[in-house]
Each structure stands twice: as C-alpha cells, then as structure tokens.
Amino acid sequence: MSIITFQTEFAGQASILPRRGAMVTTDNYNTIITAGYINNSPSSRGQPVTEGDFLFVTYNTNFAGLGGTPDLFTLNIDTAGTITLIPFSSEDGSITAIDGTENQIDINRVGSVATVSFDTEAIFPGTVQTTENLTVNSYALIANALGIGGIYPEYMLDLTTSEGGIQPSIRLAEQTSSLATPGNANDIVIFNQSGNVAGYLGLLDSNGNVVTFGSNTLNGSFGMGYAVFGSANQGSISNLVAIGNESLANTVGDVDIVAVGQASMKNYNANVGGEIIAVGTSSGGQCISGNDNIFLGAHCGNSGLSSIYNQAILIGSQADCGADNLTNVGCIGFQSRILVDNGFNLYGFLFGLNNPSPAYQIDCLSLGGNAAWRMDVQTGTPTAPSSGLVFYTDGTYLYSIDSSSNKIKYTGTPV
Q1: What pLDDT was estimated at residue 116?
Q2: pLDDT reported for residue 117
Q3: Which has the minimum average pLDDT: 51-60, 66-75, 100-109, 313-322?
Q4: Interacting residues of 6 by C-beta distance below 8 A, sequence separation 6+
Q5: Once rounded to an integer, what is the mean pLDDT over residues 375-394?
Q6: pLDDT in tens, 72-92
C-alpha cells in the first residue's frame, strides 16, 4: 500500500494561490490522515507544499490507480515539519467531503460529525452518525415525511428501531417557562413541564386547554382530558386518576381518588377525604367531604345538599343521598335515594331471590329446597310504619303492627 502519484506543481499555476495539488494512493482514509503520512512517502519528496495548499486525494485505489474514493483536504504543518492531511470544512459547518463510491456527504458541526449516505430508492434515505453519542440512525425523507430508523416513512414523523439498536423514542427536555398556545385552531403542542407539581407530559391546544399524562402528575397521578384536575386548590391531592373533560376540576382533596367522566367530581371540595371512586358524567359533583365513597352513574351523588357522605355506595343515574351527613349507606337504581344512616335502598325493582322473573317486590324461589325467611328476636316493640304492616317476633310468636300501632299476635296451632 503506497502513494502512486503526488504532485503540487502544474503548468499555468505559477504564483496562483491557493495552490491545488493531487494525490492518488492505495491506502485507506484512516491511514492517509495519520501525521507524517506524506513525509514518509518517497513519491512526495521534492514536491513543495505549504499550509495554504488544497490537495485533491483519491484513496483506496488499486495499484493501477483505478477506482477509489475522492476527497478534498488541506494541509497542517507543525513546527517540526510534520505534514497532516485535514478534511476540508468551513467555519459554518458546510460540506466537508464527498464519497464518489457511496455518494456520501460528511457534515462537520461543532462538537459532532454527521455522515449522511444517499440512496437512489428514495429522495433522501441513508444513515446519520454523530460522534457526540456514538450512535447510528438511518433516516429517509420522502415528500416531506421523515422516517428515522426506516427507509420509507408512512407518516410525517415515522420512528422505527435503528441500525444501531436505538429504540423508537423521543426525549423532551423540561419546559421551564410558560408556553404560547398554537396559532391554528386545531393544532396541538406537546411538552414536558413541571409547573407547580412534578414533571408531566402535556398537550396544549389553541384555547389553552391542557391534557396531562405521567406518573408524577399532581403527586403521582394520571390525568387525561381537557382541564383534568382543574385549575385551583390542588395541592393536597395525591395518588389520583382522572379521565374526562374537567374531571375533578377545582378540587381540594386528599388521597386515592378515581374520577372518570365529563365533569366527574367537578367542584368537589373535600378538605378531608380519600378512597373515592366517581364514574359517570358529573358523578360525585356535589360531594364536599367524606371517605370511602363510590359514585357510579351520570349525575350520581349530585343532590345539591351539603352532601357529606362516608362509606356511601350510590349506583345508577341520579342515584343520591336524600340527607346530609350520612354514613354507611347505599342505593341502587335510577333516581334512587337513601335518607338514613346504615340504610340501603333498591329503587324501582321487582327483586327476585333465585328468581329470574320476579312478580313481586320480593319474590323468592327455592334454592335446594330452602325458601324460608329468618327473623331475629325483636327487643321491644318496633316503630309503627306510615302504612302497611311491620312483622317481628319475640322468639316464640309472630307479631304485626300497623300504622295506628295496633298489634296482632299470631298464636296459631302448635305443630
């Protein structure tokens, strides 16, 4: 391997600066840029060179000087006279070298060198290499669509696993200042910003609405939908999931809250509370305090009262508590209500026990030959009903009491 030809003096170039010389060599690129490469070659001796010269070089040729890779270099000559070939580049990072064999273009930037290989199968497909992170990413640009890691992008930005094994992912640095809303009505801005809480991924539309994602959103929670979590008094919330437009908007609360649905738990103002689940449009929207509550259904828990509930289970559209400060209550059914502590109401049902076709409010069918009811001993006389009869037992006889407090004892015939 050696220099085949080396010449810096050509007819008609006398006194023309910068001088343009030429070299053909069988050596590879890494060899020819070694310090002293030209000094150590007999073919270059006797040829005058200066640091202002340009040298057109063809390397990797065969011994006949055919083929090879053309490149353009300048010369660096140190105080000892050692000559080093330097790939040509300009201060603004313009093209440094053209590889005629692979149609390669090297772009020199401050702190990195990018190598772009072109292919005739697409407008601008190839590879990009940077010395900053020592990674290789293939890319293609076809009709304003950028594909990173793949040859033929199907979307404006199309990511696939690259040649260097880099996974298709995008890193967003933290946005530390406020963002301007996008100018076009249907545009969306994606950002990573801490705001008043730990970092989260956000989407911002032209109306200033924000969708937030991420495990650290509002003290380790997840939000999805415009105005999720609202905009005021959010500091005490943690471990919370909210999905839906204005879900949990303007909320003050404690821990472990799940809200799913448009305006679900909107204006919830619990200064104490936790372990709350609200699912449905405006579900739980008027509950101002409480613990361990479940609201399932549109407008569920929206009584308009002060609505302080604990251990309440409300299921059904407009299912609600009919009184404040209730504990250990539940109701199921459209517009069902409960008004007393420790109460449960099944509203609007013919209730079948082991009976798929109930004909009465309580309609039992036998299960394994068992269709009996059991009543424990009643201590004292129960409160008279507003209508109908109340049945009870003293452990020996069955009794009933009517709305006028008249009692009947059913003695019957012992068997």
Answers
A1: 43
A2: 41
A3: 100-109
A4: 21, 22, 23, 38, 41, 43, 44, 47
A5: 94
A6: 998 899 989 899 998 875 444
Nearest to 37 by CA among 52, 18, 57, 54: 57
**Separation CA 14–CA 37 (nearest Å):** 26
Here the tokens at position 358 are: 């109930």
Q: How far apart are CA 211 and CA 191, in angstroms?
A: 10
Q: Is the pLDDT of residue 129 over 70?
A: no
Tokens matching residue 127: 């590879």
Assess contact for 113 and 93: CB atoms under 8 A. Answer: no
Chain center to CA of 273: 28
b/e code 60-95 from CB counts within 10 Å (16+ = b)? bbeeeeeebbebbbbbeeeeeeebbbebbbeeeeee
Contact 255, 292 (CB under 8 A): no
d(CA 363, CA 351): 6
Of 394, 393, 415, 390, the C-alpha closest to 403 is 390
* 3 state SS of 263: coil
Q: Is 200 left (phi over 0), alpha (psi -120 to 50) or beta?
A: beta
CA angle 100, 103, 105 (to 5 degrees): 105
Contact 28, 64 (CB under 8 A): no
- Identify the structural domains of the chain with CATH numbers, from first to last: 3-88 (no CATH), 218-351 (2.150.10), 374-415 (no CATH)
Measured CA to CA, the distance from residue 291 to residue 310 in angstroms comes to 5
CA 372/CA 374 separation, integer angstroms: 7
Task: Report the mean per-residue pLDDT for the chain.
Answer: 74
Distance CA 262, CA 158 (A): 33
Question: Three-state SS for 112?
Answer: strand
Per-residue pLDDT tens digits for 160-214: 766 566 677 777 777 767 778 888 888 888 877 654 444 567 778 888 776 666 5
Cα 169 from Cα 148, distance rounded (Å) = 10
Which pLDDT belongs to residue 221?
53
Rounded to an integer, what distance in angstroms lies between the CA atom of residue 25 and that of residue 5? 7
Model confidence pLDDT, tens digit, residues 89-113: 544 444 444 443 444 444 433 334 4
CB 125 within 8 A of CB 119: yes
Q: Could you tell me whether strands 294-296 and 308-315 are parallel, antiparallel, or unpaired per DSSP bridges?
A: parallel
CA angle 80, 82, 85 (to 5 degrees): 150
pLDDT for 271: 47
